[in-house]
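Quick one: structure for this chain?
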Amino acid sequence: MCECPFGLGGDNCDRIDHCLKQPCGDHGICNDTNSGYTCKCYSGWTGLICSEIDYCDNDLCQHGALCRNGMFNYTCECKNGFYGSLCENVDHCYNTSCLNNGSCQNHQKTFTCSCPNEWTGLRCEKENICYTTNPCGDHAHCFQVDLQVSCSCLEGWTGTNCTIRDYCYNNPCGSMGTCNNMADAYSCSCDPQWTGTHCETYACENNKCLHGYCHAGTNALYLCDCDPGWIGKECDTIDPCKSFTCEHGGQCISSINSLIGSNYTSPGTVSGASVTTKAYCKCSKGWEGERCQRDVDECKLSSCNGHGTCFNEVGGYSCQCDQGFSGEDCEKDIDECSSNPCHNNATCIDGVNSYTCSCSPYFYGTSCDQDVNECQYFVCGLHGSCVNTYGDYNCTCLPSWTGRHCENHISSCSLDPCKNNATCHDVEDTFFCTCDKKFTGRHCDVDINECQTTLPCKHGGSCVNTYGSFACICPAAWTGELCEVDVDECKNNPCPQNTTCMNKVGGFECNDCSTFQCYNGGTCFNSNSGPVCKCTDDWTSDDCRQRNFCKDNPCGSLQICINTKNAYTCEYHACKSDPCQNKGQCIESGTDYSCQCKAGWTGKFCEIKDNCVSHACENNGTCVNGNSSYSCICSTNWFGKHCELYDFCHLNPCTNGGLCQNMLDSYFCQCPLGREGKHCELEDYCYSSPCSNNGLCINQNSSFACSCSNNWKGTRCDEYDFCNTSPCRNNGTCLNEQSSFSCSCLSGFLGKTCDIHDMCLSSPCQNNGTCIMNQSSYECKCHAGYIGNHCESDQNECAMNLCPAKSTCYNEDGGYTCIWERRRKRYSTFEMFKIKSLNGKNSKQEQSKHGALKKLEVGSDDMEE
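Got it. Here's what it folds into:
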């Protein structure tokens, strides 16, 4: 290690010490470098030589701001979203945009948006409906919360939008009434006992109602609500209904009929006269008479609207409605659709005592409850198999087919299986590729090694195979893609000055007339291709030293004269006669020739028009030219004039003797009788027409099913459906039998077709009477002691004089009692005997017409005869 003298540094003391003069002063440490020095400043100082105070040493800038030193101070360079001398303030408007031209105003902890009049909301994002549409009009203050608007009406206005004038706002009815606002005025509803336009008058002063409650009437008058038992304007007259009874729920109504004498002057009195009153009965329905004692025969007044049979009853009547009608008076047409008889979303259409169902396309039958087998209509076409489901069907598509009905062909080319710009040809369930000449393989993804197959590089070039192509590495004198172009070395002026560069195949020469001699009187001159000799007629060659024996064309028109050293020779050239027609090019080969024809022509002399030029055969087909036409010899599995059609039948897909027929993009199997299916693989079980009576046969996997027409059912539609016409009325259930039908009726109906209303169902016979149905009505058979159409009345046996002599008959409900008395002096006992009817039957104690004998102890007083 070297100890360097003062002023030098480095490992070998061969470098000047730049820190010798202490450039960093007292505020930094100098570090010597190869190219100079650097200063590491002490805390609080900065700059190249630590001469500047570092005001950023304490870094008072907030929120990640960048501190920058100045001459006498520092500044904080704030990040986006902050501001202030120390970047201490958050700019809430930085990341917040007020919408719809709103102006953002920053605050200490938040922001606000100053919105145009048409907008409102935190960010001016909501339409200010109060401004744009003014829904509250000119008589209210409009308030908006979100998109909901409310109106606060000004004094004197009311209503949802404050458009109604409020005449009640100053309470014109006072404390004794309620103000009712109207369109252009108001009215007052007064409290009881008050009246007047503004409820200002007390109508019941001096208690004018003697036996009742006073309240205000109209026109400042009063009205009296009388206590029970009193009537009259001032409740001063006894109600005659107190002593007048209306039977069977009738209502007694009383009235003051007249004033006898003079005018009524005060409550309860008449000047020189008295008040007369009258009571009458307002009968309940089904009763009439002065006291509502008679049953009304409503059947004389009602015909049950012509849709039923009327039956008079005690206090009323009943209607037995015809089929299809209901209601107390059979006034309602029964909506047979109300029970939802139509299934599977069918539409029910109500009729008179009937209904019809409008079925969806997937169902049929009276109630649309029978599923349509859509598969029988070949809905999945040739490219799918159909599976019937309840109310629908599903198609299971063959590969390469999709869609509801397998109608969409999925192109095998859709996944782009052919690579390297090859052309993909879609055929059913598969594809094939037409490759570019540079690739091969099923997917055109195998590179052809042109270096092995075609030897493309010329003039000794080296071939290098690449993916999809090749490259030629050419010798120095050759260039071009195939090394087929001679390099013109003269372009770079390789020859010395005053010489001419002559390019040659595979090289060049440098010549000029100063070094080049023309013999036998030839003249030399320089040209772009070097020095050239212009010979006299008797001489030829580059330097004019070859005698020109051919100058007089001694060989004739079909031969070419060639000079030799001392003579000439004649060579035959077949192309001399221009044998190729239609602009064909003649190419000599020894003494023979061939014609290279222009596009569109063929033949030895290019004399035949080539019809294959404009009519290419597709899919690797071979075109064969004819006199005026062409034909294509197709490759395997293709046919058609241009080999454009694929032979889908080449694999013989049709089984069981089916005939395969090609279609545009598929095939179709024409099956023999008794077979069906895409490939005739299924047995046609419907072939023998097993379904009778126009039933539709549906072929299945191992059998068949019959879809029967109306009125028929069964496996082969050979059973008549007697229930098809819905013969059972009133929702009765129809049951098919051997040769007819039977109906299971709902409660309340009977008869073969449930068409008879069971009028005994409601137990119309009272007091244990027996109800007996007849043709269109019923009859009550009463127990002893009761009479009437419904056994509703007690029989008065006493009117029949059934009791013994000297006894008293007492009628009772459902029977009677005979009572008589005698005196026994000896026992001083008063004995009373009674014969009582026991439901019309005599007791076992005494078999007499008087019934059973019963002894009652009444008292012990001795009674005289």
